[in-house]
Structure formats: structure tokens, C-alpha cells
Write a structure and sequence with these properties.
The chain is of the alpha+beta class. The chain contains three helices and four strands; from the N terminus they run αββαββα. It has a four-stranded antiparallel beta sheet with strand order 1-2-4-3. α2 packs across α3. The longest helix has 18 residues. The chain starts with 7 loop residues before the first helix and ends in a 7-residue tail after the last helix. 21% of the residues are buried.
């Protein structure tokens, strides 16, 4: 089943609900700064579990004390869809100091 791309207005509305997230180079993106490399690595592991559960995967970049996600929906031709924002919401909910724990 195909996933429909979001309109620009829908993207803007959903971004308003996700402070810290932005669209860069057509991808929904966020960088989290953590207190250590271990904390950043642990967050990557948690994000990987969520992505497997949702069967929707971002590009993850692990830095010394940071994690960056960048995601689009490949099955929608690389457009942004509700799946991308669903993943962002789930990550936001588990990110230390950012969501509801």
C-alpha cells in the first residue's frame, strides 16, 4: 500500500508539534546532544529498536556526544509522509530530556 506524501502545510503543521526538528535537504532531521559518547550510543540502540518495530528507518549518524537522524519515505519517492513524523514522535518520546519517559 502506497503512503501519500504530505503537503507543505501538513509538514509545517507537524513540525510545529516537534520542536527541534526541521526539514533539511528534503529530509526530516534532528540532532540530539547528549552528555557522553556512551549516552549517544545508547540512544542509537533505542532508536534502532523503534525503527525495527515501525519498519521505517532513518539515516543515523553517531558523533562523540550526538545523534543525528534524517528520514524520508522511500516508498513515497523520498517525500515526507506521516510515517516520518510518526518515527520522529516516537524518538522524541524516548530521547533523554526531550520527551515523556
Amino acid at each position: 500500500m502506497a503512503v501519500a506524501p504530505l503537503s507543505q502545510q501538513e509538514i509545517e503543521d507537524r513540525l510545529a508539534e516537534l520542536p527541534g526538528w526541521s526539514v533539511r535537504d528534503g529530509r526530516l532531521t534532528r540532532t540530539y546532544r547528549l552528555g557522553s559518547h556512551f549516552a549517544a550510543t545508547a540512544l542509537v540502540v533505542h532508536i534502532a529498536g523503534i525503527q525495527d518495530e515501525l519498519d521505517h528507518h532513518s539515516d543515523l549518524t553517531l558523533g562523540y556526544d550526538s545523534v543525528t537522524l534524517a528520514v524520508t519515505t522511500h516508498s513515497a519517492g523520498g517525500a515526507l509522509t506521516g510515517k516520518d513524523f510518526g518515527l520522529a514522535r516516537r524518538v522524541e518520546d524516548i530521547a533523554p530530556g526531550h520527551g515523556a519517559h
